[in-house]
Design goal:
The protein has 243 residues and is of the alpha/beta class. It has nine helices and seven strands, in the order H-H-H-E-H-E-H-E-E-H-E-H-H-H-E-E. Helix 6 links the parallel strand 4 and strand 5. The structure holds S-adenosylmethionine. S-adenosylmethionine binds next to helix 1 and helix 4.
Length: 243
């Protein structure tokens, strides 16, 4: 199974019930992490282009059920493209948009490996919980940077492995609570609960935080910043693309 198929098969089964367990299993940090991420994006509209104001265009790659995209779409002057490889997740995002009346500009079914937009199409690109599901992390960053305009902002969020005294608690949570709690909800959630801890640990063995920062730098983001949240259980990175 290639990584996109793994993601599709994992997330198709939990799409309809995704949001509440995501909040519960993160001890209600999930939305808080999204909010922190979104605060890294400029709120002002970009300078007029050829004398005309234009909407601040944001790509939310791996949008899932659209939690980030829908928050962004509620900002005045912002237009959002919500993209994901898993159709049932995207369907939930559409449903959420129709319920609260905030329509992102577009929903696109695609993989982050091949973003179907021209170079420099967006003022900002965000992605949350994406890189653990791809095989070529540098290629994905290059592809997302390609569609970002020079001077635009890229921001990411993912789980992380806490250090120090929080680590044993995190292991207990990921080794025991998530698999058991997931299995109590449904077989599909059981699979996700058992998948997450090893996936997070394996990712940071290959891509420790310092190496990720270097990679962003090499991809054209000279002043990348990073912040760990919730005892180190989440990692947010953000930077402006070199002009
Ligand atoms: C854990 S969910 C996160 C959803 C959302 N970003 C959030 O913060 O709630 C991960 C999402 O990444 C998507 N995904 C995984 N690999 C992908 C890829 N190569 N291209 C696009 N989307 C991908 C999955 O389909 C899934 O919807």
């Amino acid at each position: 199974m290639n990584p996109s198929e793994t993601a599709r098969s994992l997330f198709s089964g939990i799409a309809a019930s995704y949001d509440t367990p995501a909040q519960l299993f993160s001890f209600f940090q999930y939305r808080r992490w999204h909010r922190f991420l979104l605060q890294r994006l400029p709120t002002a509209r970009p300078e007029p282009v050829e004398g005309r104001a234009h909407a601040y265009r944001v790509l939310d790659m791996a949008t899932g059920t659209g939690a980030v995209a829908l928050r962004l779409a509620g900002r005045p002057g912002v237009s959002v493209v919500a993209a994901d490889v898993t159709r049932p997740m995207l369907a939930q995002a559409r449903l959420g948009a129709s319920r609260n009346g905030k329509y992102p500009t577009d929903f696109v079914e695609c993989t982050a490996e091949a973003v179907p937009f021209p170079d420099a199409s967006f003022d900002a690109v965000v992605f949350t919980y994406l890189l653990r599901y791809v095989s070529d992390v540098p290629a994905i960053l290059r592809e997302l940077a390609r569609v970002l305009r020079p001077g635009g902002t890229m921001a990411s969020l993912d789980f992380a492995v806490p250090r120090g005294p929080a680590y044993p608690l995190w292991r207990l949570h990921t080794d025991v609570v998530l698999p058991l709690g997931g299995a109590l909800l449904s077989p599909a959630w059981g699979r996700v609960g058992g998948f997450l801890g090893p996936s997070i640990r394996h990712f940071y063995r290959r891509w420790p935080e310092d190496r990720l920062l270097e990679l962003w730098h090499e991809t054209g983001f000279p002043d990348v910043e990073a912040k760990r949240l919730s005892l180190g259980g989440a990692l947010v990175m953000w930077a402006r693309k070199s002009p």
